[in-house]
């Protein structure tokens, strides 16, 4: 059966792949710890792309997978779309047309695509991305979300932590695809992810190496990767730091599925655009099973509920790591999370040839009625356009039923058969690849940190005194706030932290606060510490972190992402303030591996990881607006940090008198 499945995958991938014509295989002796030394002699200097979309086969040499990303200011529904807005469906698919939800707006794009170009490679390939920034006056970096960057911490893509921003110039990322799974890439600068800089990154491996039983699925096709995102009709910078009289404030206008959708004006209950406007469509055939990969690239505090009409979904992985299969009809994904699932098309009703995919924004955004649709189509040619199921589409007020759901907000973990939590998932295989161990819950951690996070509100008069300039967000009328972790608002340094040979007194943390952070004032500008929060960890330590929501807002939850590591989710609690510290440290076993986990509003999450990846690694809330006002920190993991590539660009303060 395995060989038959591999043959089917090969045939499907051969049909899907464009013939790029250039294949560069990696030699057996190439230097994984410093791959950039090998690139020149491998002959990639004058190339823009190589051929890597293929079936992953045991024993076949890994390849150099080269991509060129051109970053631009661009427009959705611009000149490339011709008459798309008038209902000419073919025009919506013209080269360089970004239809989005049918509303014209300025945006940022990579290669004039939304989402940006996908990366599909095999395990152990060398991913090389030439980033050319053509956005005038705007620096940028690209983060490879979920990639551990072992031996390549300089490639993590965080400005002023691992590199300088890329100005109107180019930068070459090079790193190994060492762990198979579903990941994604996105800008880590400013609010650029909100404006359109994101895309899929999938690392496959030979199917015989996967930990699931034979027959789990027949097809794993690149076109079945689903990127969910939120979308604003104005650039994000218009709302930062905020518009005091703008109601309802910073919120998206729509959800997009693979960059497509129909804008629905909830105030009129009518569609803003023609109902023939394109929706993302995914093609399958009957009597087969298909693996889908869902990436939540959203930036706002609006978690997404995902359902497929008349279909159950067997979840098999989260954040790239396999889990024991669990079947649900609904799951909820938070910004930064990924879920892989399998559908069996032999059980679908025979009286329908197309089914609705319904994505609903819940949690904080439930009151604003955001939802979006895509189509699961049976039997039509993949070039067919304008497919709509015969059934009336589900809506917020006429939803698909929920029988079993994973990750629902404020579900009580382990207390019922309808609601499953992250801690109900069980990790299988791959623990050693993540640098973790299955016994992390059975031994005492070397380091235990409780990290509360919240928002700090400033007195308006004190905040706007002459000579004071602090990052802030204005969310409603006179409410001015900054975010913090351990009561510290993260301040990016003038030069990347990774340039330093050892930690110094320019850093701070909860046990090492600078003098200016000792001041106490109610609502004053000095009442919150503002510095570069860096916690030093010894290489090899088992680290336990309790991420605790100490804020009073019980409507917003916070998805936290840790760079450089996957971690075991040991416990999810719903009420941080009512729990004693001893109970916060209680752990469960056989916990799932993730790199992004949602902390319930008012609750906490306990995670553990082994600090075996030397480097400087950010941990932060993955809501773009919260990161922008300081909800982040960094870990300096001691050890032998690899040297930077030759000629690695530097930046920093300049004062000729100092």
From TrEMBL:
User: What does the sequence similarity comment in the record state about its family?
Assistant: Belongs to the multicopper oxidase family.
Alphabetical keyword list = Copper, Metal-binding, Oxidoreductase, Signal
Q: Which domain of life is it from?
A: Eukaryota
Q: What is this protein called?
A: Laccase-2-like
Plastocyanin-like domain segment(s): 97-205, 224-370, 519-638
**Which intervals of the chain form a coiled coil?**
none
Species for this entry? Neodiprion lecontei (Redheaded pine sawfly)
Q: List the Pfam families.
A: Cu-oxidase (PF00394), Cu-oxidase_2 (PF07731), Cu-oxidase_3 (PF07732)
Looking at the keywords, is Protein biosynthesis present? no
Signal sequence annotation: 1-21
């Amino acid at each position: 059966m395995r060989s038959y499945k591999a043959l089917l995958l090969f045939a499907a991938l051969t049909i899907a792949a464009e013939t790029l014509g250039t294949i560069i295989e990696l030699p057996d002796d190439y230097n994984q710890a410093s791959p950039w030394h090998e690139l020149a002699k491998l002959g990639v200097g004058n190339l823009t792309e190589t051929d890597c979309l293929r079936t992953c086969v045991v024993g076949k040499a890994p390849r150099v997978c080269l991509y060129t990303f051109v970053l631009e200011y661009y427009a959705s529904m611009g000149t490339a779309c011709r008459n798309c807005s008038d209902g000419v469906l073919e025009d919506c698919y013209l080269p360089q047309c970004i239809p989005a939800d049918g509303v014209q707006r300025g945006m940022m794009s990579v290669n004039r695509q939304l989402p940006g170009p996908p990366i599909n490679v095999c395990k152990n390939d060398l991913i090389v991305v030439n980033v050319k920034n053509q956005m005038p006056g705007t620096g940028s970096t690209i983060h490879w979300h979920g990639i551990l960057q072992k031996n390549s911490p300089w490639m993590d893509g965080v400005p002023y932590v691992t590199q300088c921003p890329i100005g109107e110039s180019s930068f070459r990322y090079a790193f190994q695809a060492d762990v198979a799974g579903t990941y994604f890439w996105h800008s880590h600068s400013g609010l650029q992810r909100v404006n359109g800089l994101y895309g899929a990154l999938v690392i496959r491996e030979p199917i015989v190496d996967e930990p699931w039983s034979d027959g789990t699925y027949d097809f794993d096709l690149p076109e079945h990767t689903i990127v969910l995102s939120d979308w604003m009709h104005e650039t994000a910078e218009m709302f930062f730091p905020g518009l005091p009289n703008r109601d309802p404030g910073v919120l998206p206008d729509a959800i997009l599925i693979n960059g497509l959708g129909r804008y629905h004006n909830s105030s009129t209950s009518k569609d803003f655009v023609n109902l023939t406007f394109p929706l993302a469509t995914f093609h399958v055939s009957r009597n087969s099973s298909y693996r889908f990969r869902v990436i939540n690239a959203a930036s706002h505090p609006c978690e997404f509920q995902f359902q497929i009409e008349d279909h159950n979904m067997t979840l098999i992985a989260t954040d790239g790591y396999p889990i024991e299969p669990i079947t649900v009809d609904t799951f909820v994904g938070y910004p930064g999370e990924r879920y892989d699932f399998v559908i069996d098309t032999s059980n679908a009703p025979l009286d329908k040839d197309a089914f609705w995919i319904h994505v609903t924004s819940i949690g904080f955004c439930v009151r604003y009625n955001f939802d979006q649709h895509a189509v699961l189509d049976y039997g039509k040619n993949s070039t067919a356009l304008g497919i709509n199921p015969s059934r009336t589409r589900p809506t917020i007020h006429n939803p698909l039923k929920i029988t079993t759901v994973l990750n629902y907000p404020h579900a009580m973990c382990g207390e019922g058969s309808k609601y499953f939590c992250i801690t109900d998932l069980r990790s299988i295989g791959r623990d050693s690849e993540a640098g973790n161990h299955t016994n992390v819950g059975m031994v005492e951690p070397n380091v235990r940190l409780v990290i509360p996070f919240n928002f700090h509100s400033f007195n308006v008069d004190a905040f706007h005194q002459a000579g004071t300039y602090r990052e802030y967000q204005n969310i409603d009328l006179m409410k001015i706030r900054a975010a913090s972790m351990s009561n510290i608002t993260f301040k990016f340094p003038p030069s990347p932290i990774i340039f330093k040979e050892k930690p110094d007194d320019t850093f701070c943390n909860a046990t090492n606060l600078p003098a200016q952070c000792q001041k106490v004032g109610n609502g004053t500008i000095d009442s919150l510490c503002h510095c570069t929060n860096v916690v030093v960890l010894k290489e090899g330590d088992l680290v336990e972190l309790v991420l605790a929501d100490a804020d009073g807002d019980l409507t917003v939850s916070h998805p936290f992402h840790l760079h450089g590591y996957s971690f075991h989710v040991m416990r999810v609690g719903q009420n941080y303030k009512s729990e004693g510290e001893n109970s916060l440290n209680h752990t469960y076993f056989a916990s799932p591996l993730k790199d992004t986990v949602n902390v319930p509003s008012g609750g906490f999450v306990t995670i553990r990881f082994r600090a075996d990846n030397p480097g400087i690694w950010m941990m932060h809330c993955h809501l773009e607006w919260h990161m922008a006002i300081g909800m982040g920190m960094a870990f300096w993991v001691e050890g032998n940090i690899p040297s930077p590539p030759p000629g690695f660009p530097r930046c920093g303060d300049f004062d000729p008198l100092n």
